[in-house]
Write a structure and sequence with these properties.
This protein has 555 residues and is of the alpha+beta class. It is built from twelve helices and 16 strands. The strands form three sheets. A seven-stranded antiparallel beta sheet has the order 1-9-8-11-12-13-10, with no helix packed on it. A hairpin with a 2-residue loop joins strand 2 (83-88) and strand 3 (91-100).
């Protein structure tokens, strides 16, 4: 009986997810934001729901291991729209993952040799190295923020946030991944995915195109047993195959390990590729920085006000490219950061002068550290920033997409029994199917014959007809499956407390009348049914008892 409830819930969630996905697609076709369909609309917030963790491009079958990054399987173009390449002087150094319109998350150890943000760029929409693709774009890095507790010896806290010089507009090939909504992580054994341009074999050349692989999460005990308990901190985890072969490798550092939420189908970032003992060696899985251990820090950095940090070299060198009348007020704004910590007894004027001197010294250091080949490149950045600012202002709208990563809501899916795949959607369908099993008559699926209520009477707006229709379909599916969707997860069970059999009531099929007490979906019920006392007759009678128990959910 519990299996039936779980299978019914699974069918309901899958049907609802299909309609919600279509609704999301229609929102994108209508400018990403849904109009108010049915007034009043006072509860609509100032921002649209943000989209994250949606794969683009043709998607391969990801139900089984697909080779490896080391040695392996080419990802479809645009399949991982949050994957970026992080480059030093134009050369690939690490992977990274887009977590917001202006933010990329990568590994801190990538910047051990060079922390000068002017030397780094992030390429979004990248697929094939050395070949410019549709949607591919190099974006300057405004700021590098390694985690303050990163330990280059142990690789604890191996995370770095990169603030981009300009915010990115979402597109089919460029969109952020979801960040975890809380500390809960998928259980060991969950299949997750890695992608990058890393070496095809240990000490080998990097891949020309994005490679992808599916790897299972490993428990901390398994990981410590394989690598040594002293090497793995609580902020790390392992993924991969102890048999070897499938793994991340050099050049994949900073890339994402994502797992697909089983309810929303959004991809959620749980790991950043950090380190490993070799590549794909037997008994040595890859090690990843645990993103859930650092979400508070990530949110704090991404939500900080622009003037709360020391001006970056990118900001200070861009001053020289501004029109003369704009340079002085912009310099005052940037240099005001240094006046915050000034406690000179001479007063405010002295503090302002010291702040200006500190700021100019910082500008000189930035100027001397800029590689010669990047000077002309830096001079184009202000125009880029100005164009981006104009674009954002022109696109301002009360329902515009909010910046930053989105955390999906999650509801755990129960195990699915293929036996019930064709049953649904209404409660009566399940009752009839179970009774048919008891009577040896064939199962007849009803989903294809079901017409959604109000479908023919739907009034469609000329501007966005598909969106309005999808909203009605979502509501219709919710109503069709309401009988199981309203059952709390904690009560998703069917238990039989008592079966009192009348031994003098045996019929020609070997069944007896019985009084049954059961709890279905958290609701106690009692009914009369037929039950067998022998193994064969008991098995034949159970579907009928389950059907009678489900009747309790009707009221």
């Amino acid at each position: 009986g519990t299996l039936v409830l779980e299978a019914a819930l699974r069918s309901a969630l899958l049907a609802l997810e299909r309609e919600l996905s279509e609704q999301q697609r229609q929102r994108g076709a209508c400018g990403l934001c849904a109009p108010c369909l049915f007034p009043p609309c006072a509860n609509i917030t100032a921002h649209c729901p943000r989209s994250c963790g949606r794969r683009g491009g043709p998607q391969a079958n990801t139900t089984a291991p697909r080779g490896r990054i080391m040695g392996g399987s080419v990802a479809p173009r645009g399949a991982w729209p949050w994957l970026v390449s992080v480059r030093l002087h134009g050369e690939l150094m690490c992977g990274g993952v887009l977590v917001g319109r202006s933010w990329v998350l990568t590994a801190a150890h990538c910047f051990g040799g060079n922390r000068n943000e002017l030397a780094w760029t992030v390429v979004v929409g990248d697929h094939e190295l050395g070949k410019l693709g549709v949607g591919e774009r190099a974006v300057p890095v405004r700021r590098i923020l390694p985690h303050p507790k990163f330990n280059p010896k142990t690789f604890h806290g191996d995370l770095a946030l990169l603030e981009l010089a300009v915010p990115l507009a979402p597109s089919p090939t460029v969109s952020p991944v979801c960040l975890p909504s809380g500390p809960t992580e998928p259980s060991p054994g969950t299949p997750c995915y890695i992608a990058g341009w890393g070496s095809l074999y240990e000490e080998g050349p990097v891949a020309d195109v994005v490679m992808e692989a599916q790897v299972p999460l490993l428990s901390q005990e398994t990981c410590r047993g394989a690598l040594g308990k002293d090497l793995l901190t609580s902020a790390m985890f392992c993924a991969g195959y102890l048999s070897g072969g499938i793994d991340s490798c050099q050049g994949d550092s900073g890339g994402p390990l994502v797992c697909q939420d089983p309810t929303s189908h959004h991809f959620v970032l749980y790991g950043i590729t950090s380190w490993g003992d070799g590549c794909g060696e037997r008994g040595k899985p890859g090690v990843y920085t645990r993103v859930t251990a650092f979400t508070d820090w990530l949110n704090l950095q991404m939500d900080s006000a622009p003037g709360s940090r020391e001006p970056s070299c990118f900001d200070l060198l861009a001053l020289a490219q501004l029109p003369p009348e704009q340079q002085s007020p912009e310099r005052t704004r940037l240099c005001a950061f240094y006046a915050r910590s000034c406690r000179a007894p001479q007063g405010q004027a002295t503090c302002a002068r010291l702040a200006e001197e500190t700021c100019r010294a910082r500008m000189r250091r930035c100027g001397s550290s800029v590689p010669t080949e990047l000077h002309s490149y830096a001079q184009t950045l202000v125009d880029l920033l100005r164009q981006a600012g104009d674009f954002i202002r022109n696109q301002a709208h009360p329902n515009s997409i909010a910046e930053g990563p989105q955390r999906p809501t999650t509801r755990t899916l129960p195990a699915f029994a293929e036996l019930f795949e064709a049953v649904g959607p209404q409660l009566q369908d399940w009752v009839e199917a179970l009774r048919a099993m008891a009577g040896s008559s064939p199962l007849v699926p009803t989903m294809d014959r079901e017409q959604l209520p109000g479908e023919t009477q739907l009034f469609l707006q000329v501007s966005c007809p598909g969106l309005n229709e999808s909203a009605v379909r979502v509501r219709a599916v919710q109503e069709l499956y309401a009988w199981v969707l309203r059952v709390p997860e904690t009560d998703l069970a069917m238990t039989f407390q008592e079966i009192l059999v009348d031994l003098g009531s045996k019929n020609t099929k070997g069944l007896y009348r019985a009084q049954v007490r059961a709890t279905v979906g958290g609701r106690p019920t009692a009914f009369t049914g037929l039950v067998g006392l022998e193994t064969d007759s008991l098995a034949r009678s159970m579907p009928g008892l389950v059907a009678l128990a489900l009747e309790a959910l009707k009221t």
